[in-house]
Design goal:
8 helices; single chain; eight-stranded mixed sheet; five-stranded mixed sheet; D-Maltodextrin-Binding Protein, domain 2
Amino acid sequence: MTAVDFAGFVDRLAQVSGEVILPFFRTTIGAEDKSRGGVFDPVTEADRGAEAAMRRLIAQTFPAHGVVGEEYGQDRADAEYVWVLDPIDGTKSFISGLPTWGTLIGLTHRGKPVYGMMAQPFTRERYFGDGKRTRLRCLAPSRGDALPSEWLTRPLRTRECAGLAEATVMTTNPALIRADADRDAYRRVEAKARLVRYGGDCYAYCALAAGHVDLVIETGLKPHDVVALAPIVAGAGGIMTTWEGGDVAGGGRIIAAGDARVYEEAKRLLTA
């Protein structure tokens, strides 16, 4: 099977996870702290319920496939096909009532990310790509009123950006860059950028794929944070690597760019 053959199934995973998550959004849902005294790392009933629902569907449909999820760990992580799940990427935004969160559904084949979706059930957007092309499916406003009327699917493409002086740069929060040397390296990039925005989590990468943002820089990411996003960025014509230029499947320090020119400039500053 090719990655495209799984597209319909990924839509089903997005549907079942969204059905679990949405009833909790903008409610008085409580959050546990997974950090055990460290930096606040929330998890909610919605996170756990959505991942459990996706795992059940995968086990029923593809029992030989592996699963790696944020909430319930690894199951057959050495399988030929492995699903990499983050039920709510951006839980801090979720519990704050902000819509900049999403469900990440990634698929690897022999360890390589081959398909990914970022589904946002509240805004009814699904960004998806296979490394060759990326598209957005969303509800479009009807003519004459503001209510959604029909599903539209359109291709996405990153925008041109000659360098940092013209770039919009995003990171979730510079305070999350723990190592002093890494934070200093990020600040070197930020100082040269035209515009800097914080927040967004997975949304930042999708905004890059859609041509609204030029550069995303993060550290300390896990596979479930990046595997779904890599095919989305690549399929839109972007570049997503570690700071050293390596594969992102294992997470770590990540840079994503829409144009090779701004990517090279930023990478030089990050690794100087």
